[in-house]
Amino acid sequence: MTDSHDVVVVGAGLAGLVTTTELLAAGRRVLLLDAEPPASLGGQAWWSFGGLFLVDSPEQRRLGVRDSAELALADWLGSAAFADDGSDRWGRAWAEGFVDFAAGGLRPWLHRLGVRWFPLVQWAERGGYLADGHGNSVPRFHVTWGTGPGILEPFVRMLLDAHHDGRVEVRFRHRVTALTTTDGRVTGVRGDVLAPDEAERGAPSSRRAVGEFAVDAPAVVVATGGIGANHDLVRATWPPSAGRLPERMLSGVPDHVDGSGIEAARRAGAHVAHPARMWHYPEGIANHSPVWTRHGIRILPGPSSLWLDADGNRLPAPLFPGFDSLGALQHVTARGDDHSWFVLDRTILGKELALSGSEQNPDLTGRDVRLLLQRVRRDAVGPVETFAQRSPEFVAATTPAELAAGMNALTGTPRIDADALTATIVARDAQVTTGLGKDLQVTATAMARRYVVDRAIRVAPPHRLLDPAHGPLYAVRLSVLTRKTLGGLATDLEGRVLRPDGEVLPGLWAVGEAAGFGGGGVHGHRALEGTFLAGCLHTGRVTGRALVDTL
Predict the structure, then answer these.
(1) C-alpha separations of 354 from 282, 298, 316, 389, 440 in Å
(2) At what angle do helices 418-433 and 440-448 cross, to 10 degrees?
(3) Which residues pair with 219 in a beta bridge?
(4) Using CA atoms, how far apart are residues 58 and 489, in angstroms rounded to an integer?
(5) DSSP per residue over 322-373, as a string?
(6) H or E element: which one contains 89?
(7) Rounded to whole angstroms, how far apart are CA atoms 215 and 389?
(8) Is 237 exposed, middle or buried (0-12, 13-18, 19+ CB in 10 A)?
(9) CATH architecture assigned to 281-481
(10) pLDDT digits (tens, 9 = 90+) for 121-139
(11) How much is the pLDDT for 369?
């Protein structure tokens, strides 16, 4: 079949939904295509924690946090380390626009749509370097009341209303395999109609083709996400200078996040900028109830756990839990390891360990205040407690020697020396006992408790790990968890895709992760967290409105 529409949007995740609703609000005719079944409407965003990078928000000000667009941009540039050779021209321009949006229109726009936030702003990616280096100077991670589904809710509602009124056509199980070009211009898409599949949200679905389709349109928007589930491509693209990604990795995204949309655009003449820039996590644990292949969950840690490499050595400063995700990952990959460890105790487990994702936070996702109040207890919140009990990644013991034996039994290797592990813990405990100390992690943890939110729900009071009152001890095996592509299709400030020569590829736009969250790489080399969902919102809004003016 061949059809004609004003715009074809490929991908029904958050960025695709925002773009589509902006176009529909202006009366444009849109065809929305997605390879997955209807149950997966919203894509990766549904599974997210719903964290948004907001600057100088009412939530921050109520907590006494002094933030500004100038400070946020300085943090962004210190983290991004944009190149000076012109290759980051568009990424940097998108970054400046995003920070202005995060400090200005983002929150009011979402608030008008009914989105609300948990009032206790979290402090992600603390950095730990000098003032002009990587990291957030202040807490900026605003968790959405309703998590990822809460972010999606207004856009899904607008899409369904438009669909009911006949103003948009949505076709699931339509997998775009190529972009159609005519005289150097993208003029449509073609691909396979996939067999019907009733797979649950996020679960692998059939790729059996039962037909073909072709659609013509003056504008095509690629909103297909990154490459995180395609581990072969992730390994092949990972820069050799950053070490070697292991054969055993976990996936933080469903199977369909395979990079096929980016590749289809590349074959049509698009420039893929900075493909080797990625944002994967070193703190992954296997999901005991997996939905997709190699399904992993990220631990969101407070700063008190000891982070050890596969041989039991502490990671160097400032690679403490929650400070520099990419730095810690590259430390692991440079060693050629497939795992590292958190060592902690019962008190730290209960106070500091959280799990990322909507399904792992039923209190926030379900907007359940009574359940939310359990976070102030000494014991771990429900999903963390379940993981500690059901997951083989958690080892419990009463002594360091017993803990070392359990760690070695889990990996099947004798890499953890019991005496060395004991000495490491004793040395750390001696620093805590002083009440001051020279250990940078101990002093950073003490500083974290000056922030009211960390003191209340995120950072345990200083104590000795070997104090029986805080036992037992735990070790958690951490695996590499693939997640985000920081590079992507190069775009100008209207979302128009560029060719390798820097000129516009007519007829093609890109949004969200497929566009590196703006310009082919708005984050540069490192992200500040809360910027992925927000990047989808920003690029979808900007590109949708630019398309309205173009068509």
Answers:
(1) 15, 9, 23, 15, 23
(2) 50
(3) 7
(4) 35
(5) TT-HHHHHHHHHHHT-SEEEEEEEHHHHHHH-EE-SSTT-HHHHTT-HHHHG
(6) helix 89-103
(7) 51
(8) middle
(9) Alpha-Beta Complex (3.90)
(10) 999 999 999 999 999 999 9
(11) 85
Q: Which residues contact 132 (CB under 8 A, 6 or more apart)?
A: 74, 78
Residues 6+ apart with CB under 8 A from 459: 302, 303, 304, 351, 352, 445, 448, 449
- In one letter, which amino acid is 349? L
3-class secondary structure for 475-489?
A: EEEEEEEEEEECCEE
SS3 call for 246? coil
Residue 292 phi, psi dihedral angles, 5° rounding = -115, 180
pLDDT given for residue 371 in this prediction: 82
Give the predicted TM-score (pTM) of the model.
0.97
Amino acid 2: pLDDT: 45
Tokens representing residue 139 in the block: 């807490």
Report the alpha-carbon distance of residue 16 to residue 521 in Å, rounded.
Answer: 18
- Rounded Cα distance between 475 and 308, Å, is 10
Pair 341, 410: CB distance under 8 Å: no
Domain ranges of the chain: 7-224+486-550, 281-481
Q: Which two tokens stand for residue 533?
A: 């969902």
Distance CA 118, CA 136 (A): 19
> Of 158, 162, 182, 223, which is closest to residue 8 (Cα–Cα)?
223
Taking the C-alpha atoms of residue 454 and residue 447, their distance in angstroms, rounded to an integer, is 10
479 vs 61: CA distance, rounded Å: 37
Q: What are the structure tokens assigned to 464, written together?
A: 């000795």
Amino acid at 425: I
C-alpha to C-alpha distance for 410 and 241, rounded to whole angstroms: 30
CATH 3.50.50.60 fits 7-224+486-550, yes or no: yes
Interval 374-429: pLDDT, tens: 766 656 567 788 888 889 999 999 999 999 999 999 999 999 999 999 999 999 99
Q: Count other C-beta atoms under 10 Å from residue 86's C-beta.
A: 8
Q: Which regions of the chain are under pLDDT 50?
A: 1-2
Residue labelled with tokens 């199977």: 255
CA distance 514 to 311: 37
